[in-house]
Design brief:
Elements (H helix, E strand, L loop, with lengths): L2 H8 L2 H10 L5 H25 L10 H19 L11 H29 L6 H30 L8 E6 L3 H11 L6 E8 L8 E2 L2 E5 L4 H8 L3 E4 L6 H13 L3 E4 L9 H6 L2 E2 L2 H5 L8 H8 L3 E5 L4 H11 L5 E6 L2 H12 L6 E6 L5 H11 L3 E4 L6 H6 L1 H21 L4 E7 L8 H22 L7 E7 L1 E3 L5 H10 L4 E3 L5 E2 L1 E3 H14 L5 E4 L5 E2 H11 L10 E3 L18 E4 L5 E5 L5 H15 L4 H11 L16
Parallel strand pairs: 1-2, 1-5, 2-4, 5-6, 8-9, 8-11, 9-10, 11-12, 12-13, 13-18, 14-17, 15-20
Antiparallel strand pairs: 3-4, 6-7, 16-19, 18-22, 21-22
Helix pairs in contact: 3-4, 3-6, 4-5, 5-6, 12-20, 13-20, 15-17, 17-18, 17-22, 18-22, 18-23, 22-23
InterPro entries: Polysac_CapD-like, Polysaccharide_Synthase-Rel
Organism: Flavobacterium taihuense
Keywords: Membrane, Transmembrane, Transmembrane helix
Amino acid sequence: MNENSIYTGFFSRSNLRLSIRNLSYLPRWIIIMIDLSVLIVAFFFTLIIFRGTGLQYINTSKDVVFISCFFGVNIFFFWLFRTYSGIIRHSSYIDAVKLLFSQMAVMVVFLVFNFVYELFYDERAFLTTALFINVVLSFCGLFLYRVVVKQTFELYLSEKSTTKLIRTIIYGTDANAISVANALKFETPTRFKIVGFVDRNNQNASKRMLDLPILVQKKKLPSLMRSVGAEAVIMADKSLEKEEQLIIVDQCLEFNYRVYTVPLITDWENQKEISQKVKNIQIEDLLERKPIVLDNKSISKQLKDKTVLISGAAGSIGSEIVRQVLTFSPKRVIILDQAETPLHHLSLELEKIHSKSKICNVIADVRNKEAMNRVFKLYKPQMVYHAAAYKHVPLMEENPSQAILTNIEGTKNLADLACEYNVKKFVMVSTDKAVNPSNVMGASKRIAEKYVQSLQIKNLKECNENATKFITTRFGNVLGSNGSVVPLFTKQIASGGPVTITHPDIIRYFMTIPEACQLVLEAGAMGNGGEIYIFDMGKPVKILDLAKKMIKLAGFIPERDIKIEVVGLRPGEKLYEELLNDTAKTIPTYHEKIMIAEEIQDEFENLHVDINELIGIANFFDNDDIVAKMKVIVPEFKSMNSTFEILDK
């Protein structure tokens, strides 16, 4: 290798970029030296300019002292305004303002000095106009070299990704949109090439922002994206209504354009954090509805300074109930679950909340009445949220005894102890699968509903004013809960497919976990005992459409990139779920999303005998006997796609 090739290799673009990137920041003394060099150049330029006009910048004979004072004062104001403290390659308008103030301060000081000097010596020490020109040149030089350094770092530090950048438009023109664009511009490695902004009001069509065009949306957004060659859109307009956002997302997904979302920017200084929050829009974002307005006063009155027991606390629903209950400052929260590891994870999470409420972790099984009795005796809860249950339909179809022992006997144990220890309110979390049940899981939850309702009737007959009030809440599928279809689809898409659905016509109601738990708290507060509250689940969603939308949101094309397979209905599965029994009616409440289902209620004595008999049968693990007895207690229980269909004949 010859000397010339070594020379050119050393100063190659790749080596230069590497060396610049490794230079994280300049020491402050170097910045001060560069600033001082700029001042010297500006000073001599001023001298030359005025010498050419025949004028003298400095009139005093003590020019050395004056020049020394001039540079000394400049350095003093550099220190005062800390112009050297910022990292040059991240210079902003704040640094420009600091430089301006420092130079203006220098000018003011020497104008005052000139005035005082003239009083004593009857002449001016320097030419005022020359000082002004000197200050202007100094500011321009100091600011210009910072801009040059900043642009150089942007040019060489930006990694040229081997993958093609995603041509993207930003939907929005407000401060939030500008902040997102700036953050993505400095992102390393770069993911997006921003090609413009979209102003939905079309008021700034002839203007530009960040040297990018503001695009006019005359037609649907996909048409505009096609015209500028965009492949994706980032939703950064926070004034968009939910309905408007859904329309735009559906339009983009129809043409296989990617859609990204970003939360509201509150810290515009941390641009790295902003860019990291730009993410693919999630299916949860599309299925969420308007925020629920809670009656916080009534919930707070019920929970503040009280002892609250939450069973199944480590589950997806139970853990969210725990989080929301803690916001109302209860005295003590008992989180109870038989699953050790999930309960431990929840406990660690709650430690970070720094709540004033005392949190008690209890590992116990609701099927063990002695263990439950010890919990009630020790803590004496005033409010119980019962979320512990087995909920997977196919598994309970194979193991009906476990559904009986957990969902029915476990509920019975807690409900009986709630009466014994004078718990104020007992809120049971149920499911829409309890309505006209077609599987063991749904039927077991319906029997549990019947039991807590029968206890309420018994208490009313006994005219006991201090008796426990039993309330049931019933809702459909919850997004993101354990075993939910959404996490399953996400996992299948991530592994390259196929995405499996049980039937092309199957539909389900969905709501988010926080939404469901908010309504549980609200229903618990408004309940007077005996009610079965059903929630407004919105419009039902076709699972096939949900699968296609999730595939598109992940950036793939259904059936081409990710296959969708129909595997057939699982045992006990319906094509659609119901929130009401055929014979039931609804009564509205003061909350628009909560209604009361009027179900036929059973007498305590007869139901008590039947349930005790069912629990006894369950302990012998004879599946046919168990399900046959369940069908006696719940006559509307008709098995579907199950081996137990023969028992309906």
